[in-house]
Design brief:
The complex is a heterodimer of chains A (180) and B (427).
Chain A lengths: L1 H16 L18 H4 L33 E3 L12 H13 L5 E6 L6 H21 L7 E7 L10 H7 L1 E6 L4
Parallel strand pairs in A: 2-3
Antiparallel strand pairs in A: 1-4, 2-4
Chain B lengths: L1 H10 L1 E8 L4 E7 L5 E5 L11 H12 L3 E4 L14 H6 L4 E12 L2 E12 L4 E10 L4 H17 L8 E8 L2 E8 L6 E6 L3 E6 L5 E6 L6 E6 L5 E5 L5 E6 L5 E6 L6 E6 L6 E2 L7 E6 L5 E6 L6 E6 L6 E2 L7 E6 L5 E8 L2 E8 L4 E4 L7 E5 L5 E8 L2 E8 L5 E6 L3 E7 L5
Parallel strand pairs in B: 3-4, 3-5
Antiparallel strand pairs in B: 1-10, 2-30, 5-6, 6-7, 8-9, 8-31, 9-10, 11-12, 12-13, 13-14, 15-16, 16-17, 17-18, 19-20, 20-21, 21-22, 23-24, 24-25, 25-26, 27-28, 28-29, 29-30
Helix pairs in contact in B: 2-4
Classes of the chains: A alpha+beta (180), B mainly beta (427).
């Protein structure tokens, strides 16, 4: 199932690039064909999705800079793992996407800034990842759809030593199937 | 693009049984003991055939310990059977003298060396003991370390650690290497190289295996790696994060931290990955377990009280007892081999520093003046504690004696070194 999805996604990426022929398995899918049914592998109905306009929760939205779904990070305060109000609408959007695309999985990677113990920071990143997972599940995502893991302080996005940088590293990243 | 993405998981990981590392760990002595014993190591008779390989290593070992002051000799080789002019050595200021000889022979088609030496008490004018080692050329350093261990134990009264090894992680651009070197930083070998982080290496009690956490699968997974064969297996790979392995004293089980049931919680697992059982439960973070040497307790870090503090539970499970109370951040408990002291990291006026607690009196002492100390690990004789810290923006290792006096810095050129783990005594 996941492989099939990857194939679809892959062919879409190729089609979007415009320079390569579409994968033969897809019978010449074009960018314009990105209706929910063309993308989805499961036929689980999503009542509210309107097929007439570009699918608000379609896969392409994940990479569309104009879509809120292209934003994948939630930031935290020092030694905290509470999801702040400013990220509520972002989290809600991703929850709706997971509900609309039940076959897709998400990996949440929690991160911490460099200060203190590596293993404690790994646990702190785990708390942050689980806080986000819990919220997504409350909003309708399925337990099996979301895995929360931690990278601790090991994969900083910013390598300077100071609060501006640390704030950027206290973060959850949301990765979808095919991205991890 | 798609093809390279598919190939990457194969290429991110390179496993070596033993590959010589390009980067050498260099050790700088930055502090010494208050009362160093004056000792003279005369050049061994016949040692010129191995370019003084024995006494140069022996001197460096004893000097690095911070407990000896090397006394210059007359420059003439002294054999183990030479008559010793004790008054002369006394006048030079030596309390002890080592004299020996090296002979070579050929066996099994290769050069064999026999090293014999004696340790003299210059004050009492007696021989304290002697040893004979047979080795090939590549084992001469090991023979010198064994001689240093013998001398150290005779004069200090506790086992020496010159024949032990240390494991650590070297990070250079886009590359992480789990390395193992002799306690003097030489003979560094890479056990594992990866493009993803490696943390928390820890030695099995018999020194044949390392457990560690690798992020090569984009999440933390616990592995056990056999050093002789380079083979390894997954010990904990459950949904969520798997980390902080700690060996039981019998080497059969590991305490690990799993988030499979939510939160970071302590579990016990057999070294082969079977038989997972929960060890403790809390609503908060429980991590960094370590068994006390007698196997009675597991010490760990927990934020169950709101801030990270150190607790312990009986190894078979039971009620947690809080150990640290001062300060808002006390983490990474590491017990001395005799279980009398606990090294840990404390946040002290904005600085993360290595501290030592006497567990009987609960008295504590800060051992360093640095600001980013992490990951302490006791030498198997309990004398030194190796830890990671930062100097000039670079990750280095440092070692300090449990009385805070002897200090060493261990660094690799143009790379960060972190996550030290001091190995056990050689059997």
């Amino acid at each position: 199932m996941r492989n099939l999805f990857l194939l679809v996604l892959t062919s879409l990426i190729i089609a979007a690039c415009g320079s390569q022929p579409p994968a033969p398995e897809q019978g010449g899918a074009k960018v314009e064909d990105r209706t929910p049914d063309a993308v989805k592998v499961d036929t689980q109905p999503v009542a509210t999705v309107s097929p007439s306009k570009t699918d608000e929760y379609g896969l392409a939205m994940l990479k569309d800079p104009k879509s809120i779904l292209s934003r994948r990070s939630v930031f935290f305060d020092y030694d905290q793992y509470v999801i702040k109000d400013e990220f509520k609408s972002l989290v809600e959007s991703h929850a709706r996407f997971l509900v609309a695309n039940a076959q897709i999985k998400m990996l949440i990677q929690g991160n911490a800034d460099e200060r203190g113990s590596r293993e404690y920071n790994l646990a702190l990143g785990q708390k942050r990842a689980e806080a986000l997972k819990k919220t997504l599940i409350l909003l309708g995502a399925r337990e099996a759809q979301v895995e929360a893991v931690s990278l601790g302080e090991e994969k900083p996005r910013c390598n300077e030593h100071g609060e501006a940088c640390w704030a950027e590293n206290r973060r959850d990243d949301m990765l979808y199937s095919g991205e991890f | 693009m798609i093809i390279s993405t598919m190939l990457r998981p194969l290429a991110t990981l390179l496993l070596f049984a033993s590959t010589a590392a390009h980067a050498q760990l260099s050790i700088e002595i930055t502090g010494a003991g208050a009362n160093r014993q004056p000792i003279a190591i005369a050049e061994f008779a016949g040692e010129h055939i191995v370019a003084k390989a024995l006494t140069s290593v022996l001197r460096a070992d004893l000097d690095r310990s911070g407990l000896f002051r090397l006394v210059e000799g007359a420059g003439e080789p002294l054999s183990d059977t030479s008559a010793i002019n004790y008054p002369d050595w006394k006048n030079r200021g030596a309390d002890a003298l080592v004299a020996g000889n090296v002979t070579s022979g050929v066996s099994n088609g290769g050069n064999r060396y026999e090293t014999r030496f004696r340790l003299h008490d210059v004050q009492k004018q007696v021989v304290l003991g002697g040893q004979t080692y047979t080795s090939n050329a590549s084992q001469l350093r090991a023979a010198a370390h064994r001689a240093a261990d013998f001398i150290y134990e005779k004069l200090i009264g506790e086992p020496g650690i010159f024949s032990t090894r240390i494991a650590y992680v070297v990070k250079s651009t886009g590359r992480y290497e789990l390395q193992i070197a002799d306690a003097d930083g030489m003979n560094a070998q890479t056990a594992l190289a990866s493009r993803e982080p490696i943390i928390s290496p820890t030695w099995s009690p018999d020194g044949t295996r390392l457990a560690y956490v690798s992020f090569e699968a984009k999440k933390p997974i616990v592995y056990v790696h056999s050093l002789a064969t380079g083979q390894r297996h997954v010990t904990a790979n459950f949904k969520g994060s798997n980390s902080a392995p700690a060996w039981s004293p019998d080497g059969k089980k590991l305490a690990v931290v799993l988030s499979k049931d939510g939160g970071s919680q302590l579990f016990l697992v057999n070294a082969d990955g079977s038989g997972v059982t929960r060890l403790a439960s809390s609503a908060g973070i429980d991590t960094e377990p370590q068994f006390s040497g007698d196997g009675q307790f597991i010490y760990f870090t927990s934020d169950r009280g709101g801030k990270p503090q150190i607790y312990r539970i009986p190894a078979e499970g039971g009620e947690a007892q809080r150990i640290t109370f001062e300060g808002s951040y006390n983490v990474t408990p590491r017990l001395s081999p005799n279980a009398k002291n606990m090294a840990y990291i404390t946040l002290n006026n904005g600085r993360y520093q290595l501290a030592l607690m006497d567990l009987a009196t609960r008295q504590t002492q800060i051992l360093t003046d640095s600001a980013k100390d992490e990951s302490p690990s006791f030498a198997p004789n309990g004398r030194m504690i190796i830890y990671a810290t930062e100097i000039g923006g670079r990750g280095v290792l440092a070692a300090v004696s449990s009385d805070g006096r002897v200090k060493q810095k261990l660094s690799v050129q143009a790379a960060d070194v972190r996550e030290p783990a001091w190995g056990p005594f050689l059997k």
